[in-house]
Please model this.
Amino acid sequence: MRVLFTGGTGKAGRHVVPWLAAKGHRVLNLDKVPLRHPGVPDLIADITDSGQMFNAMQAYAHGDEIEDGRGHRPFDAVVHFAAIPALNIAPDNETYRVNVMGTYNVIEAAVKTGIAKIIIASSETTYGVCFSDGVVDPKVLPLEEDYDIDPMDSYGMSKKVNEATARSFQRRTGADIYALRIGNVIEPHEYATVFPPLAADPGRRRRITFSYIDARDLGQIVDLCLKKDGLGFQVFNACNDCNSVPQTNEELLKRFFPNVPLSRPVGPHESLLSNRKIREMLGFREQHDWRRELGQG
Model:
């Protein structure tokens, strides 16, 4: 597929873009900073500029397309990861403006130029635990996609609004638009430093309900989304199968969430940010469990 990927130079994108390219997709990276990955051209553009987004939707994906005489053409799909990626990087109003208007501009330009497959990066922060003020309990565990998301911060709010924007454009156009509630992204080089301390101090992962997503497994998830048609608007938790700490859920729930009810039984190490939907609907099978990455299983 010819894929326009926004934000491919970011922490997640710089692993997802190579994964898609390796799967044979023709990817154009749209970002404010070039990725410079072999075989993946960069288009420097600003998602908050609607005109630039309309222009980008029919850009040449690769330089050789200028040779075939077919002119500009829409992409087969858009993957939208570009954003201010967390709280406290920019002032709250700027985080909200860039993320909300940037996503509106990307989706509007895509559907109005005839692109019928759009994947957007939402966030686990929409569940209202991660960036909330003070220690906040979720209403129920595990966190699944039908949860009444209620963030109180500018970043989580922007992602909630983006899901509503995506749903509205899907109703209007009939395009497939899938929103990925992406968990804490772990790059390959981070395993050796992030995971070992959690055996003694799992509480540092409480705000993300102990979950994680390997950046390469996120690449698989995006590829599966590109290949799956006909789902309309969907939200998927994008995370690995298990928690990121060695303690069992019995211990974690008793220690950190003693007042939170369970909607169903959970396995001993099953991720409390559930990926059941993406496994059942898209066939996701994780390849990078943290224990295996550290040679522990």
User: Anything to note?
Assistant: The chain has nine helices and nine strands. The longest helix spans residues 92-112.
